[in-house]
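I am still getting used to backbone structure tokens and would like to learn alongside you. To get us started, please write out a protein record for me. Once you have written the record down, we can walk along the chain together.
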Amino acid sequence: MAASNSSEDAPNTPSSPKNVYKDPDDGRQRLLLELEFVQCLANPTYIHYLAQNRYFEDEAFIGYLKYLQYWQRPEYIKFIMYPHCLYFLELLQNANFRNAMAHPGNKELAHRQQFFFWKNYRNNRLKHILPRPLPEPAEAPPPAAPPLPPAPPVPGSTIPVTAAPGPALSPMQYAIPQGSALAKNDMRSSSIDRRKRKKEG
């Protein structure tokens, strides 16, 4: 009877391979938390915060930063939206960098360098990716057409002679003929005439 009780308790011991911890969501929550933390490392101010609060003096935290380097593998890197975080993660493996980031001046320097990288990266890449095209050689002018043979003479009796046309009239000249007796409709002159009539009357 005692033997049967001990055999029933054996599967419930922690050393048993059947009781291996399994995440309820297959590790999705852990992946998201680690992804969020890694991407926070793209911010030099956050790294400065970690250094100021002495996280970098904890050996367990240093080990965690080494563990997080798996994000550089191709199957994980596709989830990274801020690639600077991987650069800073690599720098955080160095104790000198971790100590330097505790000083506000170094934080500002890293932030400025990051800003200038963002500002000029596209233009600098385009200089190397899309080199300026070579100037195209000037095209030779088309060859001149051969001169036409002279036209045969035409008898003078068939060509009607007309006078040279005068200059074309502008459209305004069609509206009111020059020297027309039609007076312009000037509002100022009519109002002056009314005043004169009132004074005379």
